Amino acid sequence: MALRLYNTLSGQVEEFAPLEGNRVRIYTCGPTVYDYGHIGNYRTFVFQDVLRRYLRYRGYEVVQVMNVTDVDDKTIRNAKAAGMPLRAYTDQFIQAFKIDRELLNLEPVEHFVRATDHIDDMVQMIQTLEAKGFAYRSEGSVYFRVRAFPDYGKLSKINLAGNRPGGSERVDADEYEKADARDFVLWKAAREGEDFWESPLGPGRPGWHIECSAMSMKYLGVPFDVHSGGTDLIFPHHENEIAQSEAATGKPFARFWLHAEHLIVNGQKMSKSLGNFYTLRDLIGRGYRPTAVRYLLASVPHRKPLNFTFEGLLQAQRSLERLRNFRSRLTMEIFPAGHNPVFETRASQARQALEDALDDNLNTAEALAALFDLVHDGNAAMDRGEFREGERAEVLDVLERWDRIFAMLDDADHAKLLRFGLAAPAGPQGAGEDGGGVLVAALSDEEIEQRIAARNSARARRDFARADQIREELARAGVILEDTKAGTRWKRK
RNA sequence: GGCGCGGUACCCAAGUGGUAAGGGAGAGGUCUGCAAAACCUUUAUGCGGGAGUUCGAUUCUCCCCCGCGCCUCCA
User: Fold this and answer.
1) Which of A154, A211, A301, A430 could form a disulfide bond with A476, CB atoms 3.0-4.6 angstroms apart?
2) Closest by alpha carbon to A451, among A471, A436, A432, A437?
3) Which window residues (411-440, chain A) lie with Cβ within 7 Å of strand B?
């Protein structure tokens, strides 16, 4: 089966293949760094990560560009309020974003680029648009003339008749300067007290959309394969990108447009303006683990709204725990040699189901189900004593293949949080506010192993009081023990 | 008003023109020194409502109800 993806541009699921050989060129709209990202933002980034990981899994080479918008009204406003230069102000949130990406196991992208490092590229593109008659100047700013681009609206399917100007009650402050209400700004005239760049266009700063056009073309060329972001970017952002890019080059801009539905909280989209948002740090502070957040965000297919609740996050954490327990059991337990003919084909079936699910427009929910089915059958076979050594490697291989895409089986949460100074101190009762995984000041692995050895010698003496005492102490330190036939295994809560 | 997403069990959430995946939670049981983990059994004659097409619809068509998003700050 081939990978099929829903393309907003065509409104249909289409078979995907890159334009040039084995190389997939992707542009993804990144964050505006005026504050910490919230998990609604990260839903989209996790989706993009699953996409690139699956493409790589399928053997493609991926070249992904992610932009950082480090100049706009909000970054300027907040930097000013903080009394910091714009660059220094946005630096801190870029840094925070990079940490969040690492906590969420988002693979590094090939080109992580800042808008303010590409002012010249944008200016050149605007000049091209001017030369071709797609742009005009007004009161020191430069605008794109939408009327000059007949294809305008092909992505968002907006039409003038049904479109209600101001239907969202959003008002464009610059509207009076434009020849047509639909026109959008390419270059904003410098304003008193705001950051600006000198340019042949006059002093000013880039409009919102131009950075993505300029940077995608610079690093990927046109047309490139995939462009993606949240659904709220379809209009006007992506529509405008298409207009200015195709007007400037005369070529198609991007082939596949992929959009992630929103994360919903209490029935509403999570957003900073509504104030109903949680940052990754908020959730960590409440005792949830970054990989549980990744699980939750990845578990719902990207075209469905994802309803965020703390209960859901807790469920995600427990579900992930089940997968980790299974891998741990599969790795540690001793099985009789040979093969079980009944189980022999089970791993390859699971692998096929996993790939079929992801081929189907990245149906992560089904991919998860495929893995859980295998986990269940594997556990059941082990319990019945029917699992054989000959199947171990194959089943592990399926888990590892799954994890190349989902990237959450390894538990590096504690190590990372310690490294980034985000670990919460151990609570007195050793439990998180919501009963989730509490993040504790870690005992080292060696210390834990020593305690376990002490407990096991107590158990050998049948001194269960002592054994339970040690287990209890470890539990308070966030370490859970499990006694198995193959010995005692432990994990961090 | 235009365009789009959704309404499936206590919660999260797949899915198909042929009689409802998976996970979490709950209940009972097995195993265990006790736990934990795991396993077994169990929890939707039902998929927002109505009509239609069909041998058969949760799945197709039409109408309606409800929630959400975008319609120039938004992932």
Assistant:
1) A430
2) A471
3) none
